[in-house]
Amino acid sequence: MNQKENIVVLTGAGISAESGLSTFRDSGGLWENYSVYEVATPEGWEANPELVLEFYNQRRRKVAEVEPNAAHLALAKLEDHFDVTIITQNVDNLHERAGSTHVIHVHGEITKARSSADPALITPIGSADINIGDTCELGSQLRPHIVWFGEAVQHMEESARFVEQADKVLVVGTSLSVYPAAGLVDYCQAAAEKALVALEVEQFPSGFEFYQGKATEFVPQIVQAWIE
Ligand code: NAD
User: Fold this and answer.
1) What is the pTM of this model?
2) Where does ligand 1 bind, in terms of residues with CB under 6 Å?
3) I need a surface site. Which of 3, 107, 137, 197 has the fewest CB within 10 A?
4) Angle at alpha carbon of residue 211, lines to 26 and 163, rounded to 5°
5) What is the spatial distance between Cα 216 and Cα 98, in angstroms, rounded to a whole number?
6) Are residues 74 and 174 in the same domain?
7) Could you tell me if 84 and 101 lie in one domain?
């Protein structure tokens, strides 16, 4: 029996945009209404934890209201034919809700809280708010399980190994401007088949075929072509 081909899919905020979750950098994106420094750095958390908790509580409520779209659902179908790893910069759970079973979150997960004293103490919270006074088992304030600017991105070595072993790589909805996650495309094999779907990109990785447009339009097409 032939071994299944390995597929790695790298996703960013753009894949969830058509589900109704704002990206950060596009016009109308979240950074137009909030300062990155205030809500996505350890210094912002120290200065105003109430504001930071409220920002992510709103994001978490919004994630619970929306549904996976045709792009998330198509990627889940790939698992019937290939060994698939999804490496996402997204903190939402739409890949899992669409049915993908191997999802690596490099920037954390909004549906989890973690201890502000020990980053390894992580608790699933679903769609519940985190409030001032909610504490971990060590008695420290809980914070969102989100990687802020200046903090270590998670699972990078493991992710790079999956990219290196991939026969096919699909990049969807990321501006490729947030490092080190954006650098994962540098690990692709020269011989791998590579496709990129986005409205716009800041760097164009070599060897990728660029599908400029919406994830819900191009991802199902690419998935269908790969399955056939
Ligand atoms: P980004 O905001 O920098 O870029 C979004 C990218 O998606 C752009 O290239 C844009 O052209 C593309 N895009 C927008 N709408 C699209 C659509 N309908 N179809 C296809 N492409 C589309 O996002 P990023 O590169 O992922 O990095 C920003 C950081 O923000 C990440 O760390 C991510 O964790 C975080 N973030 C996560 C969420 C989420 O979890 N849903 C939402 C916003 C931001």
Assistant:
1) 0.94
2) 12-14, 16-18, 21, 23-26, 29, 89-92, 107, 173-175, 177-178, 197-201, 214-215
3) 3
4) 90
5) 13
6) yes
7) yes
